[in-house]
Amino acid sequence: MKIYSSYSLSDRFLTVYAILFLSFLYIPVLFLPLFSFSESQYMQFPITDWTFERYVTMWKKTKLHDALFASIKVGIFASVISTILGILVARAMTRYLFPFKKSVLGFIMLPMVFPEIIMGVGLLIFAIFAGMQLSLVTVTAGHILICLPFSVVILISRFEGFDKSLEEASLDLGENAWQTFYRITFPIVGSGILASLLLTFTISFDEFLIAFFLSGEDPTLPIYIYGQLRHVKNIPYMLALGSIILIVSFITISFSEWIRGRGMTTKKIYGIFK
Amino acid sequence: MNKNNDFIMVDGITKTFGSVVAVDNINLEIKQGEFFSLLGASGCGKTTLLRLLAGFEKPDKGRIFIEGEDITYLIPNKRPTNMVFQNYAIFPHMDVASNIGYGLRKEKLSNKELHHRIDHYLELIKLSGYGNRKADQLSGGQRQRVALARALIMQPKVLLLDEPLGALDKQLRANMQIELRLLQKDVGITFVFVTHDQEESLSMSDRVAVMSNGKILQVSSPDELYEKPENEEVANFIGTINFFDATISSINNENCSLKSKYLGMIQTNCKNNVYSTGEEVLVGIRPEKLNLHVNKPEQDSGIIEGIVENISYLGERSHYYVKIDGLSKTVSVSSQNVNRAQINQLINDNKKVWVTFDSDSLIMIKKNY
């Protein structure tokens, strides 16, 4: 009896703890959508009048469209390139022995802990010396640098569990290296690749410091938002924009988790040969 | 092109990994339709040799021929060989049928023909109706059979098996040994089978190559390997053996007279003409070819006197370790427990016994210096 009651007590405590924990994480964020529907210019309680106007007006700002489109472009290029490089690094690290392996990996991972402001300044100086025009291309290059360590971390853990003999079996059964990658390697490590793509896209999408130093005429979305926040009247629109980003992120992450969950489902024979 | 008519010919193959010589100048011929085993302790180079045959490793030197065709540098997907991997390497994201049919993509079969073929091989491995199962829904033995079917459906000239029974429990393993042997006879494909289990290789193979340190010590049929090992290492690796020192006192045609401190004067035939009078040799005898007596038998030669030091009871037989005065190693004697009451009652530790043998059972081996 005693064991039972003490168990349920700690159980209740854990429930309260979990609720507090999640509240701490999410209540601040939820202020964004809440105030985005407020009629008032100022964020204050109580909210008296509700409106949808912020959302409607926001969509008419063409500068915002450009910034959003710029961020998506940068995000796609940065995530795809860093994931491809990450695949190569992860394979090399899990499959081969070579001199200075640990040091090489260490240098690849370093940008993860390096202050971005230092990197941003460094990259800017380098770009100027190299005579490069600051543009979305330089932003993308900078983002690849900071995204790569995350790709590598995700993909190494995925490739480590990958049995080399599966690929050998495929080669042995008559397939070439590309077909083997397509039919065996990719389906098995695919969820890791997708996770890497989504994470690096997200990192690039909300990255501010490097974009701040390296972008030219076209701002990315975070740079644009930062610029807008200097005028108080624009803040409610940014709240609306932030709310949309929040919802899209939520859907994206749920989707990626769903994909990961069904990553290992069986392919039917018809699916493979048709 | 082929130097002789052997089906598989391995000609002076050497493979090193860094400073380790995994396969050391090996020559080997394997006949068509043969069940051939590569036997050795781990690290002896047997798996490397198999991987050289499969094309997963490139040799440093030497050549490999299959049916006269030089395949030394052919990539795995172009070789007439298929492999069953040690851990089976079943594709985890596909069902059983897709695993088995994996290699048929290039043949561009109709769905009907494809299913027909896969069903045929499912039947062969006694897993009819398992086509839609996922890999993780299979037991170890079933996975092993799927791996087998997946390789056999390619109709290879040679099937390479890398310790395929190693992961199975003892009972299943014994069944699979028989099934595998029957299957091999049935399909008529040459099997090259890697194992560290000497019993397994003896019971299944037509011929066995015993390997050690990257070299082949002996290639023989299982019974020759056991009854006529060519050197001490093979004799020790295959089963148990008792060795005694002896000196050749005379050679008469094919008849050797040996003098041994513990065995006395013995006669045995020494067919190969490689021994000389006065040479020191090893004389071996298997434990089951020794007979144990509690009363002194009426014979002058072929008899050793000793004291039982230890007994291990193994169910259908018992092993007796007999201490012989002056000999550091005990002599091991194996005896069938035919009569329930019999031996254990009569023999216990420190009991004085007599061990007899027949000189025909002796194995004479040159000494390694």
Structure description:
The complex is a heterodimer of chains A (274) and B (369). The N and C termini of chain A lie far apart (62 Å). Chain A has helices spanning 2-36, 53-58, 62-95, 101-109, 116-129, 136-160, 164-172, 177-205, 209-214, 221-228, 235-261, 269-273. Chain A has 274 residues and is mostly helical. Chain A has a single domain, classed as MetI-like (MetI-like fold, Orthogonal Bundle), CATH 1.10.3720. Chain A has twelve helices and no strands. In chain A, helix 3 packs across helix 10. Chain B is an alpha+beta fold and 369 residues long. In chain B, 22% of the residues lie in helices and 34% in strands. Chain B has nine helices and 20 strands. Chain B has helices spanning 46-54, 96-100, 111-124, 140-152, 170-187, 198-204, 222-227, 232-237, 342-346; strands at residues 8-17, 20-30, 35-39, 61-66, 69-70, 81-84, 158-162, 190-195, 207-212, 215-220, 242-252, 255-260, 264-269, 280-285, 291-293, 303-313, 317-323, 331-336, 352-356, 363-366. Chain B has a six-stranded mixed beta sheet with strand order 6-7-8-3-9-10, with helices on both faces. The longest helix of chain B is centred in the middle third of the chain and has 18 residues, at 170-187. The mean pLDDT of chain B is 87. At the A-B interface, helix 7, helix 8 and helix 12 of A face strand 6 and helix 3 of B.
